[in-house]
Structures are given as structure tokens and as C-alpha cells.
Specification:
- The complex is a heterodimer of chains A (98) and B (190).
- By secondary structure, chain A is mainly α.
- Helices cover 79% and strands 0% of the residues of chain A.
- Chain A contains five helices and no strands.
- Chain A is elongated and about 75 Å long.
- The radius of gyration of chain B is 20 Å and the shape is globular.
- Chain B starts with 8 loop residues before the first helix and ends in a 5-residue tail after the last helix.
- With 190 residues, chain B is mainly alpha-helical.
- Chain B folds into two domains: 75 residues; 94 residues, Arc Repressor Mutant, subunit A (Orthogonal Bundle).
- Classes of the chains: A mainly alpha (98), B mainly alpha (190).
- At the A-B interface, helix 1, helix 3 and helix 4 of A face helix 1, helix 2, helix 5, helix 6 and helix 8 of B.
Amino acid sequence: MLKCKEASHLVSQTMETKLSFRQRLGLRLHLMLCDACTQFSLQLETLRLAMAQLGRRCENDDSLNLSDEARRRIAAAMASRSASDAEARRNPDQNLND
Amino acid sequence: MVAHPLADPREWLAAHGDYLYRYALARLRDPHLAEDVVQDTLLAAMQGSGYAGKSSPRTWLTGILKHKIIDLFRRQQRETALEEPDDVADGEPGMDEFFHDDGHWSEPPQSWGEPGSLLQQDQFLQILQECMDRLPKKLARIFLLREVEENESEEICKELEISPSNAWVMLYRARMGLRKCLEMNWLGTR
């Protein structure tokens, strides 16, 4: 009979991969008899849903924007990149000689 | 070749900067890192053959961003590995502190009630965020990659160059830590 310690690891592993027949059988038997591990299994399912929701919330939160400082910094980095690209196009030979 | 109307890089920051930032923030949970990775993404997008018009510019940029986030995670995992010796390499789940010597839970998990109503509660999600911040960084990163980016653990192993048993152990530890933290900090407040 599986211990809770082993069963809890298998519960987490079922979220990642297919268990062997032996492992599946052992876990199913354990969960039939063990309320704590059954609760643990339900908690992990809730945790998965909650994490996905946390991610979606952040992605859709209009109040989370690039700071003005970051926007300026990124714009400047892009401008400097396109200036150096233009320079490289004007003087292709120079690049070859580098 | 005719330039695509939205292929002007100057448009990207204004049109997609905030979207990319939120996408990165959801996965990195750090405003500064999220800003940096958006900058890396836009600079990388300016290089190479550029936008080919096969998908929307936003989808194309998001694809680049995903790679940049994974690159960052890989770098960070390596750096963390130097600071904290790797104790999951042998695939041992550990977590002894959660169990009695006979293998039973020292504090058996409690019922959290209906997940549907739980997920409606701002307080629950708020405490989950705080618990994420308390998790060891290495575990938090792999867990975000798994549960927010929704990568299969097989992909994560390739991306982070770790073995499957290593990944399973880290995900197990992340889940154990989070559920315990939630139970202590959220069940206590109900």
C-alpha cells in the first residue's frame, strides 16, 4: 500500500505524464481510502485553474502598461538600432573591413 | 518585395508594447524584467528578414517574446543553480518536512470547497500571488512556464535542459509549497 508521501508525488506526476499501470492502480486504491490525498488532488486541480486565471488577468489588465520611462528607453534603443542598420546599408564595404 | 503596411518597426512599440509587456509580466512577475524582455523582443524583431505578413504582427511579436522569455528563464536557472546547489538531480521528491516518518501527512490537506466560487474571490488570487512570490525562484519559474505559459513538461525539459524526473520533482515541490502557503494564509482568513 502506498504511503501518502508517495501518493502525493504520483498525484502531481499524473498532471505531467501517464503513470505506469502499477502506479495508476496503487494511486487509485490509495485515493479511495485516503481523504487527505483526495483533498490534495482536488487542491492541485484548483491550483492549476487559479494559475491560468492569474495569467489571464494580468494579460488583460489595462492598468498594467509600460512605464513612460521604459517606453522612452525602448524607443531610443530601436531608433539607435535602425540608425546603425541604415549606416551599415550605406557603407556595406566598411562592414566587410571590420 | 512589397513592404507590409504594418512592417514599420516604429509602429510596434505604440501598437503592441503594452500587450507584450502584460504578456511578459504574467510569466516573469517582475516589471523590470518584463520591460527588458519587451525591448529585446522589439530589437530582435527589427533584425533578420523582418515581418513576413504570415500572421498578425502581434502574433509574430508574441512568438519572438516567448523565445526571449525562455532564454531568460534558462539563463536564470543556470545562475540560480550556481547559488543553490541542485538537490533535485537524483529525482528524489524530498518534502520530508510535510510528512511524518510513517509517510502520513503531518498536516493533512483540508477541503477548499468549490473551485468555481474560489476562483471568483479576489482574495484567494491575491494570496496565491503572494505565495508565488515566497516560492524559491527556481520552482516559481518552472511552475509559471508550466501553468501560465502552459508548456508541456516535455517542452520544459528541452527548454531548460533538465531531465523529466527533475522537472516532475520541481513541479511537485512548487505545488506542495503553494498549497501549504494557501492553506495557512487563506484558509486562516476565511
